Amino acid sequence: MTDGTANLARFDHLVVLMMENRSFDNLLGYLYENDRPARFLGRGEPTFRGVAGSPGLANPDAGDPPRFVPVGKAPWATPEDMCHPCPDPGEFYAPHVNRQLYGSDAVPADISLLPDPAPMSGFVQDYIRAIKSQELWDGVEPSYDHFRVIMNCFTPEAAPVVNRLAREFAVSDEWFASVPSQTFCNRSFVHSGQSHGFVTNSDYLKWRGNTAPTIFERLSGALGPGKDWRVYWDHQDILPLTRLIHPTLDHEAYAANFRSFAAFAGDCAGGDLPAYTFIQPRLILDHNDMHPPVVLNPKVHSSVLAGEVLVSAVYDAVRTGRNWMKTLLVITFDEHGGCYDHWPPPLGATPPARDPAYPLEEGFRFDRFGVRVPTIFVSPLVAPGTVIRASGETPFDHTSLIRTLCLRWGLDPLTDRDRAAPDIGPVLTLTDAEARAVTPDIPPRPYTPISAGQAHEGLLSAFQKDLAGLVAHVLGKQLPPHASRVQDFFDAIAAE
To answer: Is the dihedral of CA 488, 490, 491, 495 positive or negative?
Structure first.
């Protein structure tokens, strides 16, 4: 057992909110620009690993000679500022993430042939390519002022909820996505410790064959209905993504485990939380998941501020609920989504299986981690100003959540990856006498949602098209190949 495992018995409810497509540096890189954390837990030097205090961070463009684009503070005063980077960066394992980390589209499958650490040198080059690939860019060569936004990182004033929560409670500056790629595979790792060999969202229909066991079934078998788990999701998405990529959850026995997010605050107030709660943001219509937009236009959406409102609502519901004193809330992100991060992901991740029963898509061996993502821990037993890393050689990744649940409730591991993962018990450092019954108010910045009409005219990202296609397929419909707007999705669902 890892250090702090005994602490796991001190909470009865683990709540996880997983947002979309932001790197650690993008949201928290300036968290401790002017001071330092109160305490460090785990391995490594006691220095916060943000961009502040790390001079010389830059990426070259593709010029000859190359021009180096430095890290900078992202503008944040206007609604449009809070939608950057725009357009949406690339996030496929190949070519995008490979280019971002190693400066090359194709890299060896054998990790012994990779540079270690990764140079993290190709974000600008890949973003220039991403801009040019956008249909609405009309073939115009992107300017320096446009592509430099990929190197911009928000300050605490821009996103006060996630930054203040990270300071008032705990944050890990060494939590990595499980896979250096997209949403579906990383969200699959969160709950099953594998992605059936997939490293891309598309072809999305393949995910209906992802029938590996999940932590949900394990919890149901151990704790029974009502006490086991629950997924809260926004019903405007029509079907929950968690169930779509884990079709074993389609069983009618789990119908009551899926509940509208509108019920979450009331369930917290009534003390009706199960052992494990997973919260999905709204992912399609006027999404509040912090995912960067396809393109800026008069119908601006995809704002970080919309996500801040959601994070604030979840935090307030948990801290004012009857279960607060026995709850651990984790706020994290599925993957970096192409946003700049300077800290190299480690090699040597444990593959889910030594001899997998499924083919490995694009030859990826699942033996290296994805890019760092923001991960915040909120609990009455978490001391302010804490920065936590794993104590051993294996860092935190999304399967640390599985490991934590398995140790807390005496469950067997799902895969070799989650068996090797460190748990998050050490973050609970306060004694019962020190437990924080009083918690700070952390309001979000003012945010005005777009109108319903504007939301329906919003352009679908590649991720949203895959999700919309999955929803349509399960409902016996078909998303047309030309679908580009949110309204196209709803028209397909309504079609006879």
So the answer is: positive
- What are the tens digits of pLDDT across the range 248-262? 999 999 999 999 999
C-alpha to C-alpha distances, 390 to 2, 15, 54, 191, 397, nearest whole angstrom: 9, 20, 22, 20, 10
Q: How far are the Cα atoms of 115, 188, 278, 429, 431 from residue 287, in angstroms, in the given order? A: 37, 20, 17, 35, 39
The per-residue pLDDT for range 417-462, each reduced to its tens digit, is 999 999 999 999 999 999 999 999 999 999 999 898 989 998 899 9
What token pair was written down for 252?
């009618």
**Strands 327-333 vs 375-378: parallel, antiparallel or unpaired:** antiparallel
Please state, in angstroms and as integers, the Cα–Cα distance from residue 489 to each residue in 21, 206, 288, 473, following that order: 22, 20, 18, 12
The model's pTM: 0.97
Residue ranges of domains in the chain: 5-53+154-449
**CATH superfamily, region 5-53+154-449:** Alkaline Phosphatase, subunit A (3.40.720.10)
Is pLDDT at 199 greater than 70 in this prediction?
Answer: yes
Q: Which among 102, 335, 103 is positioned nearest to 199, based on CA atoms?
A: 335
Which residues, in sequence order, are CB contacts of 68 under 8 Å at separation 6+?
58, 59, 60, 61
| Percent of the residues in the chain that have a pLDDT greater than 90, as a whole number | 90
Residue with tokens 């016996």: 476
Which residues, in sequence order, are bridge partners of residue 376? Answer: 171, 331
